[in-house]
Design a protein that fits this description.
By secondary structure, the protein is α+β, with helices and mostly antiparallel strands. It folds into two domains: 56 residues, 2-Layer Sandwich (Alpha-Beta Plaits), CATH 3.30.70.3550; 153 residues, 3-Layer(aba) Sandwich (Aminopeptidase). It is built from seven helices and eleven strands. The chain has a seven-stranded mixed β-sheet, with helices on both faces. A hairpin with an 8-residue loop joins strand 3 and strand 4. Helix 3 packs antiparallel against helix 4. The longest helix is centred in the last third of the chain and has 15 residues. The termini are far apart.
């Protein structure tokens, strides 16, 4: 099934019309209104610098439920002995900058976090929907992650690590916070060995949509950021 071409109108096709590998639509923009609608529908943008904006709804979907978080004994020991400090929303701009920098390569082409994407998520952060978790070693930012929170679902976007286990530590603190606040799940989007080792699993697109409804991520109701 061919993907859809978006126009200036604020809309997305049904996620069931995505191609077999998850591509749903091309075009549109990265306005806050479109991004928030996309997340509420289970859609996210992901594209290379030379591509048009690509919108995805993969099947299966990688998710991590707070109750399924796995922390190895060695990682627990590491966390007891590490001197890392964890913060929330202390430096969103620096977190997304590091996520971009470490993936871009010398020519800047190796990342989906284009300058336009970076600006769009900084704007979402200013509006109270995009959030970051930071890991500090003294005054140095050594790890972090960012994503979008709508009602009781956190849509993870990217993470980085400059010190041993820093990205794992911020993920653990994020999951603890999500569990405390009654979140249904963390949307990991793409499956990685790193995430699976910490308890992430793949579910069908249909089940993911059901969990979005349980998390009250309604497509057209009031927007709530409860992070």
């Amino acid at each position: 099934m061919p993907c859809h071409l978006l126009d200036d109108q604020l809309w997305f096709p049904p996620v069931e019309e995505a191609e077999e590998y998850g591509l749903l639509a091309v075009g549109g923009d990265l306005s806050s209104e479109r991004l928030l609608l996309a997340y509420r529908l289970g859609i996210f943008p992901w594209y290379s610098p030379d591509d048009p904006i690509l919108w995805w709804s993969p099947d299966p979907r990688c998710v991590l439920f707070p109750s399924d978080l796995h922390i190895s004994r060695s990682l627990r020991r590491f966390m007891r002995n590490a001197n890392y400090r964890i913060s929330f929303n202390e430096n969103f701009t620096e977190v997304i900058s590091w996520c971009r920098r470490l993936r871009a390569g010398d020519d800047g082409s190796g990342t989906w976090i284009t300058p336009e994407m970076q600006s769009a998520y900084i704007q979402l952060h200013k509006l109270g929907y995009a959030h970051s978790v930071e890991c500090w070693d003294g005054d140095l930012l050594v790890g972090g992650l960012y994503g979008v929170a709508i009602d009781r679902c956190f849509f993870g976007e990217s993470m980085f690590s400059l010190r041993m286990n820093a990205s794992k530590v911020v993920l653990i603190h994020l999951m603890n916070r999500l569990e405390q606040k009654g979140f249904e799940l963390l949307d990991c989007q793409q499956t990685t060995d790193h995430l699976v080792s910490m308890g992430a699993q793949e579910i069908s697109r249909q089940d993911f949509q059901i969990y979005l409804q349980k998390a009250h991520v309604a497509p057209y109701g009031p927007l709530v950021s409860s992070f």
